[in-house]
Structure formats: structure tokens, C-alpha cells
Amino acid sequence: MELRPAPPGTGIVFCRTDQPAGSRRTIEAVYGNVVDATLCTAIGNGRVSVRTIEHLMAAFAGCGIDNAVVELDSEEVPAMDGSAAPFVFLIECAGVVEQCAPRRMIEVLKPVRLGDENRYISITPAERFSIRCDIDFDHPALGYQSVVFDPLCSSFRTEIARARTFCRESDVESILASGMGRGGSLENTVVIGEDGPLNEGGLRYADECARHKALDCFGDLYLAGAPIIGHVRCLRSGHGMNHALLSALLEDPDAWRFTGVEHDTVFGEPDREPVAAIA
Fold it and tell me: Residue 176: CB partners within 8 Å, gap ≥ 6?
């Protein structure tokens, strides 16, 4: 996988370099191109697809990257360690540049909510972007966890990016039977047994699983095509609900509007210069 700079207005675009040049091998990372959201987020164009893009998309969002081309020679984004941290590291090593174009934002104008009291996701108007994510598993080593991510008050790099994909040990067999998770291992997935994580070294945070759900939501919502200004709250949600919320929001013209900002403190790390593309 290679990340390449792109001109203003490009957005995030995936290119399958294992496909013939001149063919339909590029896919815009926008919600209308989502083709599957079962256990990961996959986008496609009717000919080719790319799976498991959510961690890389979260890294782009957290680093303030608006424009980039992602070149891949396979259908799946590398799992790395199951978090967004390796992608953040690589983006920072490559460097970013400010582009001569205003940064377009999506401002939420009215509440949008999906689900019921037992499982839901919502977004409401706010002065800046933030997420509250709650999980609640009938499992002795998971149970109820809650995390709030506000980019102005906490660091994406240290608080959210390092949280890894997780699953329950009891779910491994069914996940493999579905054809998913074939590249999964204890190197890139936190497997939770009855007494806790099976991974050597345990958890990176006591609430790592809730943090990872927030990471997934952060990445999925970046498929809006622009950063969102609004407060997201979710309980027992997943990729499917994340994308359903995005669709419900953007397909209601009264629920949002475009707005521009001259700096990125609304969505991203505080006290940084505006950035838009990989150098």
C-alpha cells in the first residue's frame, strides 16, 4: 500500500493497482460507495472493491488529511496491528502540506437518530466534532464501557488511534465460518476470553474496546467526504449503523449544510496549522 498526494478537491481515493491501467480501478471514499458494512467497511465501484478501510480513514480524519490517493495491490487495507496508530505514524513520517483551498466542513443543523433505547446512534448540532461511544456486552471481561472523544480536549494519536480491533473468543469460529477474519491473529486483534484478553501484554487501555468502537465510528463518518461538525452518540452500534446514520444525515437537505473554516481546530488536533494533503 502507498499513500500519494492529491490536488485540492480530490478527496480520499483508493486505487487498485493490481487491476489493468485504464480500467475502473479507482473508488472514491464516500458513503455512497459503501458496498458492505458487516464486520468492516468496504467500498466499491461495481467492478472492484476495497475492504477494511475504516482504520486508515480514521487516521486521515485524525491527521486532518482531506486529499490523498491510496494505492493498493489487493482488496484489503493492511491490518497492521489492528489500530490506526501505524497509519498515523506513516502519515506523520511522510509529512503533510497545506493546500491553497478552503477546508469545507459539514455542519449538522438538526438531530438525526436511528435505533431504539437498546441500540442506537445519533448526531446532534454542536460547536465542534465529538463522539460518545458506549458498549454493553453480556460478557464478564467486557460488560459496559463508555468513552468520549473530543479532539479539542484529547489527542487522537494517544487516546483513540492506538485502540485495536477486538472480538470475543466465542465469536472466532463463526467469524471464520463467514469468510471474514482470515488474516486475523493475536498480532492484530484483541481476543477477549472469559477471564480477559488472550493477547500477550493485555490491553492498551482498560476501556480499549469502547475506544476502538469510537475509532471505527470516526473513520466511518469520514466517508461523508468532509469533516463533520456535530456530536455523535452511540450505544451498541457498529459499521452498519454508522453508515445508516451518515446516509440519513446527508440525504436530508434540511439536516446539514456546508461551511468553511480557516483552521482545523474544529476537527483534528488542537493548535496545529491547517493541513490538507500528504506531502
Answer: 182
Cell of 94: 511522510
Q: Are the CB atoms for 214 and 147 separated by under 8 Å?
A: yes
Q: What pLDDT digit, counting tens, does each position of 134-163 carry?
A: 999 999 889 999 999 998 888 999 999 999
CA neighbor of 152 nearest in space, from 243, 14, 267, 252: 267
Strands 49-51 and 277-278 come out as unpaired
Q: Tell me the residue type at 91.
A: I
What CATH number is associated with residue 173?
3.30.1700.10
Domain that holds residue 42: 2-278
3-class SS at 143? coil
Element (H, E) at 247: helix 239-250
The residues assigned a catalytic role are: 239
Work out how many domains the chain is built from and give that number.
1
Per-residue pLDDT tens digits for 13-57: 999 999 998 889 999 999 999 999 999 999 999 999 999 999 999
CA-wise closest residue to 40 among 225, 258, 243: 243
Residue showing cell 434540511? 254
